[in-house]
């Protein structure tokens, strides 16, 4: 029988990350870059959310405001050549993998200058050169694509690692565990990441999830499994880097459950009736990933108020430019609506 204290959204102390408490490296420029990426994502998502409410984003979008540290920590824990496959809520992962904000915004608009020519939209961003093997509207499917990437890496012996993402809702779909099982049995270089933001649409994950935690469930498949504070970019980066190093050494997959929170509704404009405003305020005021990281850098003498303002201004200018590009970009040529897959595969040099 659960008590009120057990309900989803109650702030419980996150378990330590896989590698223990993360020390702050004294590399100011690099850490300010991470913060710059987080501010860019925050600004992008807040702007895009407003644009979606004005009807500028066909099909709408799923904002990841509050989840910035998960994306930046993952991207910064990987090497060039490593790949990430995301979910329906993955603009933050695309931007953390350094897809150009102009191309991401134009893709949300369904415009020709979009990352995928405007044919994918918010849920289908991809850039193979930058290691984004697609975001994905099918719950749990991105992990299967990452599993394929990890299998390819182990066959080609190219030393790359794949990260597959899903949410707490995805943790309750069968395919997720088929992928985890195969990765463990085949000892693949896969980092499995559950981005647990406590809710699947309107459902509190605790009300539908058996066992103590998703991480503990995963441990039953015979791979190392850890909970990570997903609001701490450094903890995420350390955990991902350790898991990627382990995968690269041939030791196989690792499971990471990242504890995070989405500030907005499931999708832009959703009327939220399943959690309290107070709960959102608690997360925002005590665990905001951007504020926590800025404060940590400031305390360590690695960030001045002027540098913080400069990063925020730069993010604002970049996103304003992205909106201009998206507004001015033409619609895709209707004649390319069907059949352009062949043209694309020809352009990539694939034989048919
Ligand atoms: C196979 C499948 N079933 C159902 C849906 C509808 N759906 C879209 S998002 C979602 C919930 C996902 O929750 P979670 O995995 O926690 O991710 P979050 O939205 O919190 O990022 C559902 C059920 C879907 N897209 N795909
Ligand atoms: Mg969720």
Structural description of this entry:
By secondary structure, the protein is α/β, with parallel strands linked by helices. It has a single domain, classed as Thiamin diphosphate (ThDP)-binding fold, Pyr/PP domains (Rossmann fold), CATH 3.40.50.970. 44% of the residues lie in helices and 9% in strands. The protein is built from twelve helices and seven strands. The strands form two sheets. A five-stranded parallel sheet has the order 1-2-3-7-6, with helices on both faces. A two-stranded antiparallel ribbon has the order 4-5. α8 (233-248) links the parallel β6 and β7. The longest helix has 26 residues, at 28-53. The protein is globular and about 50 Å long. The termini are far apart. The structure holds thiamine diphosphate and magnesium ion.
């Amino acid at each position: 029988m659960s008590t009120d204290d057990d309900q989803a959204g109650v702030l419980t102390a996150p378990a330590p990350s896989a590698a223990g408490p993360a020390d702050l490296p004294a590399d100011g420029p690099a850490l300010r870059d991470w913060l710059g990426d987080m501010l860019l994502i925050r600004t992008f998502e807040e702007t895009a959310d407003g644009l979606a409410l004005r009807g500028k984003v066909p099909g709408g979008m799923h904002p990841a405001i509050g989840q910035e540290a998960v994306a930046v920590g993952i991207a910064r824990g990987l090497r060039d050549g490593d790949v990430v496959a995301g979910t329906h809520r993955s603009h933050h992962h695309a931007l953390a993998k350094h897809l150009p904000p102009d191309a991401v915004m134009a893709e949300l608009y369904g415009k020709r200058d979009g990352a995928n020519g405007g044919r994918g939209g918010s849920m289908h961003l991809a850039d193979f050169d930058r290691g984004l093997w697609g975001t994905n509207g099918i719950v749990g499917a991105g992990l299967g694509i990452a599993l394929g990437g990890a299998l390819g890496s182990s066959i080609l012996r190219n030393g790359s690692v794949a990260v597959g993402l899903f949410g707490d809702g995805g943790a309750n779909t069968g395919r997720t565990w088929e992928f985890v099982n195969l990765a463990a049995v085949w000892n693949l270089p896969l980092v499995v990441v559950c981005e647990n933001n406590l809710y699947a649409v309107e459902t509190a994950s605790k009300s539908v999830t058996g066992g103590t935690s998703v991480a503990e469930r995963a441990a039953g498949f015979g791979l190392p499994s850890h909970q990570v504070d997903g609001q701490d970019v450094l903890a995420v980066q350390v955990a991902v880097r350790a898991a990627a190093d382990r995968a690269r050494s041939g030791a196989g997959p690792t499971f990471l459950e990242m504890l995070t929170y989405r500030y907005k509704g499931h999708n832009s404009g959703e009327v939220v009736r399943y959690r309290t405003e107070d709960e959102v305020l608690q997360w925002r005021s005590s665990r905001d990933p951007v504020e926590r990281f800025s404060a940590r850098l400031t305390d360590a003498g690695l960030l001045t108020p002027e540098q913080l303002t400069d990063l925020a201004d730069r993010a604002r200018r970049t996103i304003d430019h992205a909106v201009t590009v998206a507004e001015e970009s033409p619609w895709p040529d209707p004649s390319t609506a069907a059949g352009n897959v062949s043209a694309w595969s020809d352009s990539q040099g694939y034989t048919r």
